[in-house]
Design brief:
The protein is α/β, with parallel strands linked by helices. It has one domain: Rossmann fold (3-Layer(aba) Sandwich). The protein contains four helices and four strands, in the order βαβαβαβα. It is globular, with a radius of gyration of 15 Å.
């Protein structure tokens, strides 16, 4: 059995490194990207078991990265840690993800 592979996308270099060390200590294989565009590229070029995605990123914010990954058919689970001040924005992303999942379910139902 291979170790789970996780992508951490965070522009705070020290925080991303700390998350990477913690996950590696638990046996995960971890890649790190520091911009939204680099995270999007990595997530489409490599298979990941999970993605830890910051919201406030340079180049492309986490919400847009998430939406673009789903539009490209990448269904890897995405964890988006948020603070209480970002709760409203987080509700927006949950709404987007739910709508995309419903659309995918409808499409699959029509094709079967």
């Amino acid at each position: 059995m291979h170790p789970m592979r996780v992508l951490v996308v965070d522009d705070e270099v020290r925080l991303a490194a700390a998350v990477q060390r913690g996950l590696q200590a638990e046996g995960f294989t971890v890649d790190v990207a520091h911009t939204g565009l680099d995270g999007l590229w990595a997530a489409t070029e490599q298979h990941y078991d999970a993605i830890v995605l910051d919201i406030m990123l340079p180049g492309m914010n986490g919400y847009r990265v998430c939406a673009e990954l789903r539009n490209r058919g990448v269904d890897t689970p995405i964890l988006m840690p948020v603070s209480y001040t970002h709760l409203r924005a987080h509700e927006t992303v949950l709404d987007l993800v739910c709508r995309l999942l419903l659309e995918k379910k409808k499409k699959n139902k029509l094709n079967s």
